[in-house]
């Protein structure tokens, strides 16, 4: 390491950062009483200052030489209180493993898995998180945990996804809502396509709703609903009327007809467009609340 660990009866440990990709160098002290001194998390004085701090039963000096962009933290510890110093470096090309800078002993790495049950979107999952525990092992076999690194985590479902299949009679479609991500491949096989506006899977109703439901029951908790949505049918009619009026206005405008009537017609078209937009938003909100 570039840092000098022992000087003037003191052990120096540090936490320095640089670059834009989390590059850093860190040295951690393990004291003889089992206390760990980690410069990255120690309480530090304001920039440019040095202060005395108590870490366990040991008084140390903490120097904060950080800049506006990078950390430069140094901790000075009486040498007679220190069992060992371990260090590592992460550069843009990768991380260097932990190694013993001072003292006698070894580093042992133990994988640990933590499991807990969580609820997400109304479903229960087992969350499994991996940790890497780094121990300094003294010559007489004592172990001191000096660093705990988090690995990956995964979610294991404890119950089936809940999916609702809805036959919208007014629109002549079938759509699926709920935990559809887990069954999207099955939905695709039956001709469903993702509607990003309404955030649901849809297809034309061809009478095979029950068949789809039966195939999904192996992998999902499925419910089926038939919805006769009069509002949806009214919106479709209004939207159709709006398009016809707009085409009529466009034809009148391009042919250079009565300008006053064209302006009045354009205002009517704009008002009708706003009605359609408002009703669609209301219908979407109702669908989300009911779905």
Structure at a glance:
The chain is α+β, with helices and mostly antiparallel strands. The protein has helices at residues 184-189, 209-216, 230-255, 259-290; strands spanning 6-7, 10-18, 23-31, 36-37, 50-55, 58-64, 72-78, 82-91, 94-95, 99-102, 105-120, 123-138, 143-157, 162-168, 173-178, 193-195, 200-204, 221-227.
Q: Secondary structure elements and their pairing?
A:
Elements: E1 6-7, E2 10-18, E3 23-31, E4 36-37, E5 50-55, E6 58-64, E7 72-78, E8 82-91, E9 94-95, E10 99-102, E11 105-120, E12 123-138, E13 143-157, E14 162-168, E15 173-178, H1 184-189, E16 193-195, E17 200-204, H2 209-216, E18 221-227, H3 230-255, H4 259-290
Class by alpha and beta content: alpha+beta
Please indicate the percent range of residues in DSSP E strands (runs of 2 or more): over 45%
- Largest sheet composition: 10 strands, antiparallel
What Rg is obtained from the alpha carbons, in whole angstroms?
A: 33 Å
Q: What's the average pLDDT? A: 87
Number of helical regions? 4
Low-confidence segments, given as residue ranges, are none
* Domain module tally: 4
The N- to C-terminal Cα distance equals 61 Å
How helix-rich are the residues, as a percent range? 10-25%
The total count of strands amounts to: 18
Q: Note the run of SSEs as H and E.
A: EEEEEEEEEEEEEEEHEEHEHH
What gross morphology would you assign? elongated
């Amino acid at each position: 390491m570039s840092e000098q660990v022992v000087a003037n009866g003191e052990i120096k440990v540090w936490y320095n950062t640089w670059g834009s990709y989390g590059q850093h160098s860190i040295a951690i002290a393990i004291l003889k009483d089992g206390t760990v001194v980690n410069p990255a998390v120690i309480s530090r004085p304001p920039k440019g200052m040095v202060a005395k701090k108590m870490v366990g039963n040991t008084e140390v000096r903490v120097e904060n030489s950080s800049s506006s962009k990078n950390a430069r933290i140094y901790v000075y510890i009486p040498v007679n209180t220190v069992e060992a110093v371990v260090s590592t470096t992460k550069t843009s090309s990768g991380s260097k493993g932990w190694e013993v800078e001072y003292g006698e002993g070894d580093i042992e790495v133990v994988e640990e898995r933590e499991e807990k049950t969580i609820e997400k979107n109304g479903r229960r999952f087992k969350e499994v998180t991996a940790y890497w525990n780094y121990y300094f092992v003294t010559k007489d076999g004592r172990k001191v945990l000096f660093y705990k690194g988090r690995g990956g985590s995964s979610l294991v479902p404890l119950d089936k996804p809940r999916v609702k299949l809805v036959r919208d009679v007014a629109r002549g479609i079938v759509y699926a809502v709920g935990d559809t991500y887990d069954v999207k491949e099955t939905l695709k096989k039956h001709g469903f396509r993702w509607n990003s506006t309404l955030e649901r899977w849809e297809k034309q109703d061809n009478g095979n709703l029950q068949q789809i439901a039966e195939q999904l029951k192996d992998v999902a908790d499925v419910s089926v609903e038939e919805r006769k949505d009069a509002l949806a049918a009214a919106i479709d009619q209004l939207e159709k009327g709006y398009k016809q009026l707009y085409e009529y206005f466009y034809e009148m405008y391009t042919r250079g007809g009565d300008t006053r009537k064209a302006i009045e017609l354009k205002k009517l078209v704009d008002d009708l467009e706003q009605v359609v937009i408002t009703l669609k938003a209301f219908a979407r909100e109702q669908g989300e609340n009911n779905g």
